[in-house]
Amino acid sequence: DAKKLVRSPSGLRMVPEHRAARSPFGLDEPPWVPDKECPRCMQCDTKFDFITRKHHCRRCGKCFCDKCCSKKVPLPRMCFVDPVRQCAECALVSQKETEFYDKQLKVLMNGATFFVTLGTSDKSELMVCRLSNNQRYLVLDGDSHYEIEIIQISTVQILTEGFTPGGGNTRAIGMILQYKVPGSEEVTQMKFTAGEDFNCNKKLSASWLAAMHKATKLLYESRDQ
Fold this sequence. Notes:
By secondary structure, the protein is α+β, with helices and mostly antiparallel strands. Helices cover 20% and strands 34% of the residues.
């Protein structure tokens, strides 16, 4: 998908030429709190003057002094080219998201193998599941082929095993995914189960499911903004 470089008050961004091609995990830039509405830092209440300048957090748009908004952190969800100024609270969130973009997104794109059951069928098919390079589709390849648009996914439930009432470690063994069929209100369900045979690397499947769980959280946040 073609992209273009744009400049906003917050910095340079590399964005898709068409909004429909944007990542489903993306966030829009927030409106900045007008300067006239923030005579004091919205974190420490320091009064702004010629010495104490005001700065806007690129993630939340609120107004802070330099001490409370000094960190420059990558913000890939808004497509910024360079790290941008953020308040301490937003910087922590963005740093955690950077791990998703640096590591877990690659896991999703590389894919993993699952037994996939469609709807109420009692038959499953061994398929390689991966996220498309443009992040907009979940691609399933086996004897059959499916492409599920990420924005059409309504719910994702991660299936685990190993939990006991007294505590203990759990691991992801599959997921149940529901999505809307484009052009209708019909909801389709798919169940993904990590295989037991030598063709299915259970550790890789568990890592892929963990990454999918994080991706789902980002997807919900993007919808709620």
